[in-house]
Every structure is written in structure tokens, then in C-alpha cells.
Amino acid sequence: MAKPQPTLMDKIVSLCKRRGFIFPASEIYGGIGNTYDYGPLGVELKRRVKDAWWNAVVTARADVVGLDSAIIQNPKTWETSGHVAGFTDPMVDCKKCKGRFRADHIGDLSCPEKPSKRPGECGGELTEPRSFNLMFKTHVGPMEGSGSVAYLRPETAQGIFLNFKSVLECSRLKPPFGIAQIGKSFRNEITPGNFVFRTREFEQAEMEFFVPPAENDEWYEHWRGVRFDWYIDHGISPERLRLREHDAAELAHYSTATADIEYEYPFGWGELEGIACRTDFDLARHSEASGVDLRYFDPQTKERYFPYVIEPAGGVDRMALTFLIDAYEEEELEKDTRVVLHFHPAIAPTTAAVFPLVKKEGMPERAREIEAELRAARMTTFYDEKAAIGRRYRRQDEVGTPFCVTVDGDTLAEDLVTVRHRDTMEQERVATGELVSYLDDAVRNWGRASRV
Ligand code: ATP
Asked: Is residue 344 assigned to a domain?
């Protein structure tokens, strides 16, 4: 029988492991479901994704500020937000194999014992759907008891609502304005996750934008457009991206309108980020439950009101996976095939690799000096002197390094290096003194045209 060909996801998972992007967590103990660790390149990739998000959503704007709130909050937070009662998935159990499955995903799942069959079609009987709360419970303090129960946050948004008043008082902002946060969230996900698409702990990048209620619709338009364009500006293929409005049945209990930015993954279209109109649901509920007035007082109109909220909420791990999938290409060349990740340089884990052409004649020493200059200019670099130069280029293509800088005889004689571009494979001679500004310009002027 012919060996089954690896799928695109298989290839990406294997590349991530081999080259140090993403490892299965606790692997030496046999792993732990839906949990991954990020290796040296993965951590850089994620850092770039977070920086690019923060730059666009916070640094570049005068109307958004940042926050870093605690993971474990007073448990009343989650009672008030509706998570204790309502953050559930409908689950069914198979009485035969004891497997537990999301009732709304049965059509996409296989029976663990007979993988060619759906759960329930294998002769096992499924229970009626039961609500399963996705929040992780823990205990605070030395005694375990019902009074000490706390939750790991399932979203970063609530920490923002709890701090709304404090931020308002210290920042001198007034609606419309936003508070942004990047941080870990935890959900006891049951459905297997398609690698880091769905994991039990993950990072979210969320922003709550508080607006006068009358401006709700225009800001919803604004943030849908801004967030969609951000992906395209950072290199995601527009033809694999779409905005999909939720219909009424799909809307969360707190939302009057929600649009998902969806990507066409190898396993089908999936949510990458959601932009939701949360109305005044959260501020009003927390006001009522805490007894603290969270309304905004407008000194001009003398009006006191709960702002409405527009929330763009994305997952950093899902973004990193999307950048990896979208960047991946097996490119047919004249003589062979190369694997290349076409990352935008703002997302690429390494900006420039530096090579001596050969390991002699002072080239390694000069290459090390040049690498140190690039590092001093805050570029991420990688030094490599092993193997033939062609192989070294290919190793960098496979991890998406946009530029390779080679030190050769001309560098020593005339202070010129060769810069090789990942996507076009074209090479240019650049004076060493101009290398930093040359690379800076190339990053700044990067466009999709350079992908072809
Ligand atoms: P899904 O329908 O995929 O479960 P959701 O609608 O519950 O996602 P939100 O609560 O809107 O997701 O969270 C905002 C973002 O957080 C999602 O768009 C996604 O990018 C990310 N996210 C949510 N759950 C996970 C998870 N288990 N693993 C990784 N990322 C996640």
C-alpha cells in the first residue's frame, strides 16, 4: 500500500518541531493534550506578532492605552460576566469508549476506537448533551473549600472592564478611547485542536474601545476595517481572508453585532479574530454587582452614561499559526524544490543571517563584527559558517529569514557585502557602512510585490 502523503499541516507541524518554532509540551512525559511550548524561533515569531499588534493598536494611536491585569481575579468577576453560568460547550459522552465530544462538532470528529466512524456511529451510545464549563478552577489560600474557589481567566477582556474607572481617572482620556491588553487566557477545551489553533492556554490580544452609544456603528465599521487590513498589511493573502457577520442565532448573549475575520486554513475556514459590539453589557453588570458607578461623566454635556464597547479580540497563537501557514511554500526551482516561509519582515523571527563565504582569511571574524553591528541596531540575526553557502541560504529560507548577508573577499578588500533576498533570491552588493540603513529601508518599504 502506498504511504500516505503528509498534509500541509503535517509539514508545518514537523517544520515547527525540527527548526525550533513549536514543540509539544511535556514531551518527555508523553505530552499533555492541546498544549505546546514555543522554541527559540517560535518565541521570536510570537514576539513579533505581539509587537506588530501593539504598534498598530496602541503605539500608533493617541486614543488607546495599554493594561496588564491579573490572571486570577475576584471570582465575582466571572459570576457577573456570565462565565460561571454560561461559558459552556454542550458535551456528549460515549458510553462505550468513555470519549467526550463537543455535541456541536460531532460531524467533524472521529471515534477514538474506530477513526473511520463518527462518535456514536461506532456502536457506542452517546449521552444527552450536557453543559461543560470551560473555565479552569483553582483554589487561593491555604485551605481548599468552596470559599477559596477562583478561576483562571478565560479571556483578558474582563480585566479591562474592572480597570475602566482607574484608567479613565489616570489617563485623561474620554470616550471614544480604548484599553488594550495582551496576555494568557485559559479554557478547558475538549475538542482536539489542529495544532496551536485551539489550545488550553493561549495568548489573547484584546482591546475594548469605549464609545458614546450614538457612535457605536461608525466605530464598529472602523475596527472591522482596521483589523482586517492589519493582516493584509502584514502579508496574509487577501484571497484566504474574509469578514463574516454573525447571524442573530450565533451572537453571544452580550453582543448586538459581531464579525469574524476568518482564514481559510488547510482544515477549512476558521475564526482568527472577532470584532464584537458588546454594548454596555459588561460595565453595567459590573456596576450593579460591585456597587461602584462605572458610568462616564461628560463634563461638557453634564451627562452620565455607560459607554458602548467595540471589542477586537484575537488569539496570538492563532495569528502565529496563520502567518506560518500562509507563508509556507514549496517552490519549484529549475533544479530542485525549496521550502520557503514568505514572512513579512516585521513578522520574521530572524531579520538577517550573516555568513562568512568560507571559514578562513579573516572572513568569520569580519562576519561576527557585522553581525554585532546589526544586533546593536536591534535587528534579530543569526550567524552560520557551516556547510556550503547554498545550503545555508536554504536553511534560512525554511525559517523565513528575509535577508542573508555574506562576507567574502570583496568585504575585506572593498568593504562590500552581498545581500541575498529570500523571495527573489536576487543578490546585491552593499557597502558595509550602509548595511543597517539598507536593511531598514528594505523592511520599511516591503510590499507584496516583493513576494513574486
Ligand atoms: P472559537 O469559536 O474558535 O472557540 P471563540 O469565539 O470562543 O473561538 P473568542 O472568545 O472570541 O473566541 O476569543 C477571541 C480569540 O481568541 C479567537 O478569535 C481566537 O483567535 C482566540 N482563541 C479563542 N479560544 C482559543 C483557544 N482555545 N486556543 C487558541 N486561541 C483561541
From this structure: no
Q: How confident is the model at residue 85 (pLDDT cuts 50, 70, 90)?
A: confident
List the residue whose alpha carbon is closest to atom 1 of ligand 1.
Answer: 271
How many angstroms separate the alpha carbon of residue 163 from the centre of ligand 1? 23
How is residue 246 annotated by DSSP?
P
Residue 8 lies in a domain: no
Q: How far apart are CA 373 and CA 337, in angstroms?
A: 33
Range of the domain at 432: 350-451
Give the three cell numbers for residue 274: 472577532
* pLDDT in the model for residue 448: 45
For atom 21 of ligand 1, the residue with the nearest CA is 315
Q: What percent of the chain has pLDDT over 70?
A: 98
Are 356 and 370 within 8 A, CB to CB? Answer: no
Is 244 in the same domain as 166? Answer: yes
Q: Which residue owns the Cα nearest ligand 1 atom 16?
A: 315
Same domain, 105 and 58: no
Question: What lines the ligand 1 site, CB under 6 Å?
Answer: 155, 187, 189, 198-199, 202, 204, 271-274, 313-315, 317-318
195 and 297 fall within a common domain: yes
Taking residues 100-106, what's their average pLDDT? 82
- Give yes or no: residues 298 and 384 share one domain: no
Q: Whose CA is nearest to atom 15 of ligand 1?
A: 314
Q: 279-312: per-residue pLDDT in tens?
A: 999 999 999 999 999 999 999 999 999 999 999 9
User: CB count, 10 Å around CB of 36?
Assistant: 25
